[in-house]
Design brief:
Blueprint lengths: L3 H4 L15 H12 L2 H5 L1 H8 L4 H24 L5 H10 L2 H34 L11 H19 L1 H31 L20 H12 L5 H6 L8 H30 L2 H6 L3 H9 L5 H33 L18 H18 L7 H26 L14 H13 L9 H28 L3 H6 L2
Helix pairs in contact: 2-9, 2-12, 2-15, 4-10, 5-10, 5-12, 5-17, 5-18, 6-7, 6-17, 7-8, 7-15, 7-16, 7-17, 7-19, 8-9, 8-15, 8-16, 9-12, 9-14, 9-15, 14-15, 15-16, 17-18, 17-19
């Protein structure tokens, strides 16, 4: 029996998602996502791993991500549907459990990313309110602001993709203008001969327990947090006007633009501010501007710009997570209620609430220990989850070569997909020097996924729903 996942069919009486994304909105979507929390909050964390050569892990991360981007381009143009990696794995292997775990892993990566952004939003908001002075990590206001922020994101997400993407456009332009100002001020300072730490740009300062190679791979694994963007974008495929035509050029252009910005920012940051200061800061770019131009008004404005930038990351990731649940529910892999589309707003209402609840629970959990680096911890967990998914996606593209489709699509070279799978898998391993706590958080999230899968499978079997589908995927 043919399954909904194979046909992509929907019932005639069900409302479908509105196709509103052209190439310009999609490009801003990708740029806004990648340039969000990663560059504004994690530059210091990466510098803490490798020292002044903080630009190198970002460059390597983008190079490895580009390998996987080619696999995504083949798959999204071959199957231009919502659900992204989980849908591709379902078509490649047809195993219900594997499909569900990939689905849940991608969803969790979006939620951990949004939760990271909520913390960064709270830090930047309180910094802005306090006139540039960063709040203490134990300040209870941080948690309350972060919770309120996630609820606001939920409301915008519910309003609709047009409103959500419209908000994304505004926030992307704000965050990009802030980064361009940082680059302008920073390099003006450097060209003037005032950069006292310029020699540090090519220097490695690694923790005592790590070699240079391990420090670079550990920092690269963390830098992958910035690269949620193109995974998010493929989950918006059903809301694009012409995904087969526009995705290749838009995705590769977005990666090239954001990679350039990340490298330029990392270089000027370590040239202007001591690495030790960057590593301890949750607002590294604010420190850069304050050091380069202490009397320039942007030093007071940048915390507000940073706040909007990380808000953009959270909005895009929560949009992705809810659409992912909606897509796989529509394909019969998840309970039917998660595919409920609000008749007035035409948004996946139940999936939006479900993902927001998980984000709130995770935020409260990681905030229990104020001494831990919440941004670094959740950012690293996001990267860990994504790298695992990217490994499977690179394998899936090769398996699906045996299943041609009746329309033209992008095709990547086999060696590129193989190299992408190998490099992504390596960066998930403990030998990279990854913080063990990241495995703990990822493990608990996936355990919750296994329990949810078991309950869903039992529910389907007990009530004889989609019995033929269950036979196909087992």
């Amino acid at each position: 029996m043919t399954t909904p996942a194979d046909t992509g069919s929907t019932r005639a009486d069900e409302p479908e998602l509105k196709r509103v994304l052209g190439w310009k909105l999609l490009l801003l979507f990708i740029i806004g996502d990648i340039l969000g929390t990663g560059v504004y909050a994690l530059t210091g964390q990466v510098a803490g791993e490798v020292g002044g050569a903080a630009w190198l892990p970002f460059l390597i991360a983008f190079a490895v991500a580009t390998l996987t981007a080619f696999s995504y381009l083949e798959l999204v143009t071959k199957y231009p549907q919502a659900a992204g990696a989980a849908l591709y794995v379902h078509k490649a292997f047809g195993i219900h459990f594997v499909t569900f775990i990939v689905l849940f892993t991608v969803m969790c990566s979006g939620i951990t990313s949004a939760t990271t952004a909520s913390r960064a939003f709270a830090v930047n908001m309180l910094t802005a309110v306090n006139g540039g002075e960063s709040p203490d990590a134990t300040n209870p206001a941080l948690l309350f602001v972060a919770i309120g922020f996630l609820l606001l994101v939920m409301f915008i997400n519910f309003r609709g993709v047009a409103e959500g993407v419209g908000t994304n456009v505004v926030l992307t332009l704000v965050e990009l203008s802030g980064l361009l100002l940082v680059i302008f001020i920073g390099y003006w300072f450097i060209i003037g001969g005032n950069a006292q730490h310029w020699d540090a740009v090519v220097a490695f300062e690694t923790p005592e327990d790590k070699t240079v190679f391990i420090a670079i791979t550990s920092a690269t694994a963390l830098a992958f947090f910035a690269l949620v963007g193109f995974e998010d974008s493929v989950n918006m495929a059903e809301e694009c006007k012409d995904p087969v035509r526009i995705f290749p050029k838009v995705m590769l252009s977005g990666l090239a633009i954001t990679a350039t910005v990340y490298v330029l920012i990392a270089i000027c940051a370590v040239a202007i501010v001591p690495v030790g200061v960057l590593a301890e800061s949750e607002t590294p770019l604010v420190d850069v501007v304050q050091a380069a131009a202490p009397d320039f008004p942007i030093s007071d404005l940048l915390p507000w710009i940073s706040m909007f930038a990380v808000a953009n990351t959270a909005l895009i990731n929560m949009m992705m997570a809810s659409r992912l649940l909606y897509g796989m529910s529509k394909q019969g892999v998840l309970p039917k209620f998660l595919s409920y589309v609000h008749p007035g707003r035409r948004t996946p209402f139940a999936a939006i609430i479900f993902t927001t609840v998980i984000a709130l629970v995770l935020l409260v959990y990681v905030s229990a220990d104020p001494k831990s680096s919440i941004v670094g911890l959740l950012g690293g967990t996001t990267a860990l989850l994504l790298l695992g998914v990217f490994t499977v996606v690179n394998v899936s593209v090769l398996v699906l070569r045996r299943k041609p489709v009746d329309h033209k699509h992008f095709r990547t070279r086999t060696p590129i997909a193989v190299l992408g799978a190998v490099t992504c898998f390596y960066l998930t391993l403990p030998v990279t020097g990854r913080d063990p706590e990241q495995y703990v958080i990822a493990g608990w999230l996936l355990l919750f996924g296994v329990i949810l899968w078991a309950l869903t499978y039992w529910h389907h079997k007990r009530h004889h729903i989609a019995e033929g589908h269950l036979e196909d995927v087992n």
